[in-house]
Amino acid sequence: MHRLPSPDDEVTCKGAQTALPADYDMEIIRKRVAAKGHLLDAFPGLGLKAYLIREREDGSPVNQYAPFYLWATPEGMHSFLWGPGFQGIVNDFGRPVVQHWTGLAYEEVPAAASAPGAATRRRAALGEGVPPGEAVAEAVARHAREARRDGVVASALAVDPRHWELLSFSLWAGPEAPADEGERFRALHLSAPGRVALGAGRQW
After folding, report:
1. Contact 64, 20 (CB under 8 A)
2. Burial call 157-189: b when 16+ CB within 10 Å, e when fewer
3. Who contacts 189 (Cβ-Cβ below 8 Å, separation ≥6)?
4. In angstroms, rounded to a whole number, what is the distance separating the alpha carbons of residues 191 and 58?
5. What pLDDT, in 10s, does the model give residues 26-58?
6. What is the C-alpha separation between 23 and 21, in angstroms, rounded?
7. What is the spatial distance between Cα 191 and Cα 43, in angstroms, rounded to a whole number?
8. Domains present along the chain, CATH in parentheses
9. What is the pLDDT of residue 5?
10. Integer Cα distance of 160 and 177 in angstroms
């Protein structure tokens, strides 16, 4: 997400989901992140990347490696997707589904200085009869309120205008995220070379 978007800039966030077998040893993912997570700690154009997993043994319906990215520039995103970093994921796990959203809002309060231990992701469809502008304005206002809850490290709101779907993503301090926040993940590492440049509030 840009601090000050210009007409030529594209505010984006991205998520790559790799579903794993039910009996997959998730320690493999933990070791991978411990060994390679730092490689994006200074990646140009990256706002932040949260290295996320969820596990069946914690009540998740699937074992999953699901990193989430906020890109400060489209050039940074392209450099990653078409470069050796993403190819390493493809080599090890096959080509994952990459989901892509346009950023609407970003907030960092009140636990911004804490290292995140958990994350949540919540999706909501925009009904056909709902004016898109009104729905987005309401979602941005709600996001600003929700981002101020205790334990929130950072929170982003985005939209997929192809499927008319809103996505709310939050990083949480501590090892557990609230149970009523949608899909829950553990955060193994945070690479945030461009986090200070991610602009607060509405992104247009």
Report:
1. yes
2. bbbbeeeeebbbbbbbbeeebeeebbbbbbbbb
3. 33, 34, 37, 38, 50, 51
4. 24
5. 999 999 999 999 999 999 999 999 999 999 988
6. 5
7. 9
8. 12-202 (3.30.70.100)
9. 31
10. 24
